From TrEMBL:
<dbReference type="InterPro" id="IPR013785">
    <property type="entry name" value="Aldolase_TIM"/>
</dbReference>
<dbReference type="GO" id="GO:0009098">
    <property type="term" value="P:L-leucine biosynthetic process"/>
</dbReference>
<dbReference type="InterPro" id="IPR050073">
    <property type="entry name" value="2-IPM_HCS-like"/>
</dbReference>
<feature type="domain" description="Pyruvate carboxyltransferase">
    <location>
        <begin position="1"/>
        <end position="129"/>
    </location>
</feature>
<protein>
    <submittedName>
        <fullName>2-isopropylmalate synthase</fullName>
    </submittedName>
</protein>
<dbReference type="Pfam" id="PF00682">
    <property type="entry name" value="HMGL-like"/>
</dbReference>
<keyword id="KW-0464">Manganese</keyword>
<dbReference type="GO" id="GO:0003852">
    <property type="term" value="F:2-isopropylmalate synthase activity"/>
</dbReference>
<dbReference type="InterPro" id="IPR000891">
    <property type="entry name" value="PYR_CT"/>
</dbReference>
Amino acid sequence: CYVTEDTTRAQPDTLERLYTTAIEAGAKRIVIADTVGHATPIGVRALLKHIMRVVKKSGADVKIDWHGHSDRGLALPNCMMALATGADRIHATALGVGERCGNAQMDLLLVNLRLEGLIDRDLSRLGDYVRKVSEATRVPIPFSYPVFGEDAFRTSTGVHAAAILKARR
């Protein structure tokens, strides 16, 4: 496995030289790391396409991983884009726990992959898992955390609440 740090801010020709050398030395997996959460989904797509061309040109059977951080709040959409573009594996953590602003939230990633029909797994106990991780790591689940936060399915004001009250009459 060959990992490049800060891949998303490196020059494409530098990455090509690094990955070509790694593949020639026997690397079977490449990890593209957005070390400081710099990338956008469009940038992820462009970078992955470039690296996939490098791998194809080598003729080797090399898998590509995506490892992102959430400094700009884009870790989850970047993971979705990496998968859509052709990454073989993506890295994520429960509740996005990780360095600085964290990593992609594995729990939300799984929910989105299920909703998109990309996985067919029973996620009925995922909420229990998220709560246990929160307790074990002492990382609180924000009230507004998608899917698993206390307010995720609560409506209390505005047009939505009015529609619910009207429907109950």
